[in-house]
Design brief:
Layout lengths: L1 H57 L5 H18 L9 H7 L4 H24 L2 H15 L4 H17 L4 H13 L3 H14 L3 H18 L6 H13 L4 H13 L3 H12 L5 H20 L12 E7 L10 E8 L8 E6 L5 E5 L15 E9 L11 E4 L3 E2 L6 E7 L1 E2 L2
Parallel strand pairs: 1-8
Antiparallel strand pairs: 1-4, 2-3, 2-5, 5-6, 5-7, 6-9
């Protein structure tokens, strides 16, 4: 498609040059032809008048002196109309020769050379390799799991990586294809490389989430110390990263911690999901709740602490509507991911943000702590990992209880140094 568009644009450029040259040559030719016809007509008139004078001399109407005077006048009139040094027979030849003038040869020559020269320069300075890579990435996104196509794509991505070992997206798509082929250990290593080279914080969080899933499967479906480290890295960038919540929910379900599984899955249900993914999660939540009922555990028996934060922006702050805002409750006694977190955008503010045990993003929730602080951050980078230049507000220490919700007002005003 790129080459077709390029050729069409090249043809349009040629027309911009060729059409004026051709029209100018045609006008010149027409002008030359007109002069030729005028000169021919003048000669015919001269010859006719000359014959008339000769006839009048023979008939005695004119004497010799009058004939000679009129003939001289007729010749002077012809010389005034027809150039003696430019005979009519030479005019068409001169018009044809004018086509070879430099003012016409140079534009035509440039037009002829434009196409090969453009392709040559594009090969030197253009982005043909980037277009080839983009085509591989597009096919990787659209691939529906054909094993032969996957292997072809793996070889093509391998060639890209061989030339540019720091191409994070090549590593990412390679990892996804390896997962599709069941090569989990190799996929985990490729995800690790992808996360190291992709700079955008949101994209890196997504890659780390999928890396955590691959590492979890490679570890025998166990959250080992290494897997937990990957999860922590992802949640520092985005506490509500979907792949991480899926992993934590599945692990809790397998280990019969059904309440935690329901908590993670309900968080996912509050996000934008595909219809089939939403239906699957709803079925899993129902299954977990049924197993809790069979074991005598009732979901929601213990509501746990509840935090209600009335959050707004300072009146002097202006951000794009899609800038992300992270609100989290953090324990003063333990490190790691927040006890509860929510992600929104500037367009959602002002708002009342509610945090409960259902907003847990890690192994601990609000019920596991006696005191917390609330941190609200406008992240210009889109990452939950606070950086200089973000804007933030932190609450005082808040005691928690299960009886009454804790309510407070917070306004984001201060830049992070």
């Amino acid at each position: 498609m790129f080459w077709i568009v390029s050729l069409l644009l090249m043809m349009l450029a040629v027309l911009f040059v060729a059409v004026p040259v051709v029209l100018f040559a045609r006008r010149q030719q027409n002008a030359g032809g007109g002069q030729f016809h005028r000169d021919s007509a003048n000669l015919m008139i001269f010859e006719e008048r000359q014959a008339e004078l000769d006839s009048e001399l023979a008939e005695g109407i004119l004497d010799a002196e009058q004939h000679q005077a009129l003939q001289a006048e007729l010749q002077r009139s012809l010389l005034a109309d027809v150039r003696a040094d430019d005979p009519p027979s030479a005019q068409p030849a001169k018009t044809s020769a004018s086509l070879l003038l430099p003012s016409r040869i140079v534009p035509i020559g440039l037009v002829v050379l434009m196409l090969p020269l453009s392709f040559y320069l594009y090969g030197l300075w253009g982005f043909s390799e980037d277009l080839q890579i983009a085509d591989v990435f597009e096919r990787s996104r659209d691939n529906q799991g054909n094993p032969e196509e996957l292997r072809d794509l793996i070889f093509e991505l391998g060639a890209i990586i061989e030339e540019d070992g720091e191409n994070g997206w090549a590593w990412y798509y390679l990892a996804r294809h390896l997962v599709s082929l069941g090569q989990i250990n190799e996929a985990a290593r490729a995800f690790e490389r992808a996360a190291a080279f992709v700079e955008n914080a949101q994209d890196r969080a997504i890659i780390l989430g999928q890396y955590a899933q691959a590492a979890y499967i490679a570890a025998g479906q166990q959250i080992t110390a290494d897997v937990q480290t990957i999860i922590d890295q992802a949640q520092r960038l985005d506490p509500a990263e979907q792949s991480v919540l899926q992993l934590l929910g599945a692990d809790a379900f397998v280990n019969e911690n059904y309440q935690s599984a329901v908590t993670y899955w309900q968080q996912l249900l509050g996000m934008q999901l595909r219809a089939d993914d939403r239906q699957f999660l709803q079925q899993m939540v129902a299954e977990a709740q049924q197993r809790m009922s069979v074991s005598g555990e009732v979901a929601g028996d213990t509501p746990g602490p509840r935090l209600e934060v009335s959050l707004s922006l300072g009146p002097d702050l202006q951000f794009a509507p899609d800038v992300r805002v992270f609100v989290s409750a953090r324990s003063l006694q333990q490190a790691g991911p927040p006890l509860a977190a929510k992600v929104m955008t500037v367009a959602d503010l002002p708002a009342i943000v509610t945090l409960t045990d259902g907003d847990a993003v890690g192994p601990f929730n609000l019920s596991s702590a006696e005191e917390v602080i609330i941190v609200a951050t406008v992240s210009l980078s889109g990452s939950a990992d606070v950086q200089s230049g973000d804007f933030q507000v932190r609450s005082p220490t808040l005691p928690l209880n299960d009886e009454e919700p804790v309510r407070l007002q917070m306004q984001i005003t201060d830049p992070v140094p």
